[in-house]
Design goal:
Blueprint (H helix, E strand, L loop, with lengths): L4 H29 L2 H7 L13 E3 L12 E4 L8 E4 L4 E4 L1 H9 L5 H11 L4
Antiparallel strand pairs: 1-2, 2-3, 3-4
Length: 124
């Protein structure tokens, strides 16, 4: 009896698409409930207590001592989730997931990183 390779390929694609949708849904949930402000504050970065709805400058914790603020955190908008841009590191687009990874030094699987964030922020 010969194998149906086309059917196997379709099943594999279906599993891959389902996994992609599952991971995307988790990322969307994290972005909806955790901001870059939240991750920064949780890791000791001093921000004003004005909430997470405005831009704030701060000293970037990733490139050494700053004499003046070198990074800015931007709130969520229609164009994307909240994020950080450091003018010294020339890094932009650090969202809450990327920031969590940088602060924790996490080097495992991406889905394990998502699980860690979900657990630490009490997300279902």
């Amino acid at each position: 009896m010969s194998r149906d390779y086309q059917k196997e390929a379709r099943n594999e694609v279906d599993r891959t698409d389902a996994m992609r949708r599952w991971v995307t849904a988790r990322i969307d949930q994290i972005h909806a409930q955790v901001t870059a402000h939240d991750v920064l504050r949780r890791n000791g970065v001093n921000l004003k207590q004005g909430g997470s709805q405005r831009e704030e400058q701060f000293s970037c914790p990733f490139h050494g001592k700053d004499n003046k603020p070198s990074a800015r955190v931007y709130p969520s908008s229609a164009r994307g989730p909240s994020h950080v841009w450091c003018y010294v590191c020339q890094e932009k687009g650090w969202d809450c997931i990327t920031l969590w990874k940088k602060f924790s030094g996490f080097e495992g699987r991406f889905t394990a990183l998502l699980s860690q964030i979900e657990r630490d922020f009490g997300l279902a």
